[in-house]
Amino acid sequence: MLRLHQEGTKDYQMKVCPVCGKEYSDTSSLCTLDAEVLQNVDDPLLGQTLAEKYLIEQLIKRGGMGSIYRRCWVRRSPKNISSNN
What is the pTM for the complete model shown? Predict the structure, then answer.
C-alpha cells in the first residue's frame, strides 16, 4: 500500500531514471544525465517497522540530504510467561 504525504494538493513521491538509477523529486520528468523518462518508485520504508518500535506511516518531505517520515510508536504485547506451579 502506497501512502503519500499531501501538502495542499501536492503529493511527494520519488522518481528514478531507469537507465542510470539517479533519484529525482516528483516534479521532474526527465533525467538530466541521459534524458530518459523518469519512473515513479514506491518508498520501501512506508509501512515498515524499524527496530521493532516504530511504524513508518508517511513521507513528510524528501530533500537532497535525506527524507523525513511520520512514524508511530508500536506497542509490543508483553511476552507470555508461563509458570509451572
Answer: 0.50
